[in-house]
Amino acid sequence: MRNYEFTVIFDADDEKMKQGLAFVTETLEKAKATITKQEDLGVKTLAYQIQKQDKGHYVYFELSADPTTIASMSHVFQLSTLVLKFLFVNPEK
């Protein structure tokens, strides 16, 4: 298990953000990732449009997971319409 920082951007709409957050946390739990910290960073203006959106709701996670699990979760999040953008970072490197 390695430690990761995970930032995800959802639609700025509260209802869509809640659906997206539930989807992400459920996916992380199914993948047996351990969430050690979750921080809601709020709505911010995007530097460029993503899926025709000018604003996004940012949520930051710190988690522990297996590297192969991160790859499979990345694929799931890429296919999801609830997630605008996401980034996994290994802070130990």
TrEMBL record:
Keyword Cytoplasm among UniProt keywords: no
Keyword Cell inner membrane set for record: no
Keywords: Ribonucleoprotein, Ribosomal protein, RNA-binding, rRNA-binding
Function: Binds together with bS18 to 16S ribosomal RNA.
GO molecular function, one term: small ribosomal subunit rRNA binding
Name listed for the protein in its UniProt record: Small ribosomal subunit protein bS6
Gene Ontology terms: cellular component: cytoplasm; ribonucleoprotein complex; ribosome
Gene3D superfamilies named in the record: 3.30.70.60
GO BP term, example: translation
UniProt-listed InterPro entries: Ribosomal_bS6, Ribosomal_bS6_sf, Ribosomal_S6_plastid/chlpt, Transl_elong_EF1B/ribsomal_bS6
Family to which the UniProt record says this protein belongs: Belongs to the bacterial ribosomal protein bS6 family.
A Pfam cross-reference name: Ribosomal_S6
UniProt-listed HAMAP family: Ribosomal_bS6
